[in-house]
Amino acid sequence: MFGAAGLMLFTGNGSDPLSRGIHVAGCAAMILASWSWASKLPVWPQEAVFTLAAGWFFVRAVHGPRLRVQSGGQRWRDLHHAVMAGAITWSAAGMTDPHSTAEHIHSSMPAQAANPAGVDTTAVLTVYFVAAALPWLSAAFRAAWKSDHREPQRRRHAVEAASHGLMSIGMAAMFLAMA
Which chain regions cross the lipid bilayer (predicted)? Predict the structure, then answer.
């Protein structure tokens, strides 16, 4: 799912380049996180990039672009992207073993949240991402249904909405696996 979503966003031109870049990086990070050797990768670059991305999307949702009025729908999208970037940061930090590197290499599985708060957060994020996928997928189907070959803007909207829906479902699957 992340590969398809990342490819759709990478080749698309519906949103601004920074937003697309963050989304493609998020897809790549989640693909890498699904591999067993991912625990050997340094976590701090992911935490830094996606913490900054979450902040950027949050600020954008609160203040919006200076040159245009931002609608409530756009604010929701930016808040959703902030939650998604924050969730990637949280999952990267949560899957990091706080013990030494030598102990970590000898463990058979990446560290997982052992406390109930971590399990509760994982469950809440899983439910959120499933629920958040529905409007994206609905928008993708509506835009695809109404578009024809003469309306490239609707097709771009359908592809972008579908990619965000796939990312949300992929995030839900990853958090379900963490639970």
Answer: 125-145, 157-178
For the beta carbon of residue 103, count every other beta carbon within 10 angstroms.
10
pTM: predicted TM-score of the whole model, two decimal places = 0.76
Q: What is the pLDDT of residue 126?
A: 94
Number of domains present in the structure of the chain:
1
pLDDT at 105: 41
Q: How much is the pLDDT for 75?
A: 84
CB neighbours of 139 closer than 8 A, spacing ≥ 6? Answer: 157, 158, 161
pLDDT under 50: residue ranges of the chain: 67-68, 99-113
Q: Is 117 exposed, middle or buried (0-12, 13-18, 19+ CB in 10 A)?
A: exposed
Helix (H) or strand (E) holding 103: helix 101-106
Q: Which residue has the tokens 């509760």?
A: 120
d(CA 105, CA 135): 41
Question: 25 lies in which domain range?
Answer: 2-178
